[in-house]
Amino acid sequence: MSNNKHGLSRHIPKDIKLEIRRNSKFGCVICRCAFYQYEHITPEFHDAQEHDPNNMCLLCGHCHDKVTRGMLSKQTVKQKYIDIQQSTDIKKPFDDIDINHNNISVKLGSCLFKYSKCLISLDGISVLNIEPPEEDSSFPVLSGFFSDDDGNELFSINKNEWQGSNDAWDTEVVGNEIIIRTSKNKIALHLRILPPESIEVVELDMRIGQSHIILTEDELKIGRITPTAEYYVGIGSLECLGADIGVFVDSKNTPRPNLTGIRMAGGEGIDIQGTGIKLCVGSTCSMTIKELRIEDANKMRTIITECPLTSSLECTTTIHPPRL
Ligand SMILES: [Zn+2]
Fold first, then answer.
1. Are residues 69 and 135 in the same domain?
2. What is the whole-number distance in angstroms between the Cα of residue 43 and the centre of ligand 1?
3. What pLDDT shows up at residue 58?
């Protein structure tokens, strides 16, 4: 719902957003943070008749809060916006990082994705996406979806634009590392940039609804948590080139995951049948996968199936005491 006097929609057209990003040199005009929101400087949104790029800029959540609390004036924001446009030596966010290549490869623990359009897609939502920087920016274009431990959405980042409440998050950009926290002690995403064309995901822990995606030392684990059971597929050592989607999860059409087999088909990637999980989806991708581990735990028992995916394709299943 728009709370604008003139009925102006909150939706900002794409070309206007791009102009604001260019004018702001792709970062918060106050602190240069690379995650931001689109701010109406003057007039404020409820009085604005249009989305005017001359009177709008990029502000990060922290700086936006300072404006709301009256600690930072609109005049200062406006002046900084003008300074940034006029100056020729304004620092780009992440200015000293050399990651301008078009072919970014992303390492998620022991899994490597090269040229993937989307890394992780869950029920149609792209929960993690890392793309090459936009023109004149040296910061990668990041999209992610972040929630609390019960799977409720806290905030999301859509192509570096912060969406959601400002107090639910914290980001830290130190040297070549980006850390996003969903609470004081909980790191949801920790990235390390390795010039010239590699990004390493050091930590990842995302819960969306009942789905859970977590990076451990030697596996990328994709799972489902219900009140009585937990179910994980762990992928160890995967190399995926050119996929449309690296990891695809369809939880809505898989109410009770039940592994029935593993199928590989040209153009469809690996289908871990019965679980709603597919890997390396896309018509022109290639992949190498060395290990799969399937964990199915409830209050009675834990079943672990290990599939080394060697030439013999033999899996072993063992039943363990309950871990829940
Ligand atoms: Zn800022």
1. no
2. 20
3. 93
